[in-house]
Amino acid sequence: MATTRYSGLVTGFMVNQLNTWRLLCLPVSQQGSGTIERWLKPSMATYGPKIFKAGELMKIDYQKKVALLHKQKKHGVKLETLEKTKAAVSHLHTRYIVDMQSMDSTVSEINRLRDNQLFPKLVDLVDGMAKMWNAMHRHHKSQYVIITAIRSFEVPPVPRETTDSHHHQTCELRDIVREWHMQFEKLMDNQKSYIRALNAWLKLNLIPIESNLKEKVSSPPRQVDPPIKHLLYAWHDQLERLPIELAKTAIKSFAEVINNIVNLQDEEVNLRRRCEETRRDLFRKKQQFEEWHQKYMERRAALGEDANPEAPEAQNLDPVEERRHAIEEVEIRLREEEGHHLRLAKQVREKSLANLRTHLPELFRNMADFAFFCHDMYNNLRKNAAGPKDEVQG
Fold first, then answer.
1. What residue stretches are annotated with the DUF632 domain (predicted)?
2. For a FRET experiment, which of 241, 253, 285, 394 has its CA 20 to 30 Å from that of 301?
């Protein structure tokens, strides 16, 4: 009963824990995806490989035409040929200016979305993550306090077996912890992938679009060091420094502990079922003996008190004692199996409680520490991005 209550408490903790992590572990990139799509489409149109290639070919063609024009002037070609080359150069120059201005217009719109929509949404996301990890820290800390408080829970000396229901709960707990580990890993991987993708795009976004033409295109000034740059660079660096492996190892180790308990319970449950089978076998043999003994005594009474209606000619064994001896052998085997089962049940309960007492506080302490590191990281990011007046409390 003690183990069942303890395991039930732990299972309840873990179910709530997993439900929380399932909500958290949706791809982080879903946050702000509408804004990202709005600036990603014009960005791809501007920076797509086909556009780049066309622009480069036009510039090369222009440079060739300019070189040809200089060569023709130097060698004194016909005026008609020279004017034709000049017209081609002028046409390419005009096209290049128009394309560059169109590109500048698109880039300006991208940067406007980047600074006025994407950046504020990322600040809001950082704010939400700071609050989320603060709540997770309080949650894990509360779990640690509760589990630590019941570590002194004593096991009653009366041995109690592992029921099928209890064994099912332990298997469920193992599966929950395994999924928790998977969801945690997914959450951290999604965060890293999201920030890496944003940083990769930002590096392309900050590359200046230059013209090698002598007549510079009148482009609007571009912000070389926008606020989003500091946020994303710091976000990436601090994510890489988080002790993620420590938290992952803590969850995985606890899953292995629960799996070991499941294996111990499997052995006990199998032995209990063997006892039940032996008990049914004994009951069946006793019933068969009673039925046989009644018929045997009736035949013996009909033949005479000293007659043995089932005795072989060569020997005179007592069939009653022979069948009673077979029943006694089953009874002895049942007592041995029941004794073994009771001893094993006690060992399983003691080992299970010892493992839970040792590893549960360790698990929640590590997760509370990790949640604190994450909260501190996001709180610092938010302070740096939004200013000290909006600092997240807690």
1. 53-259
2. 285
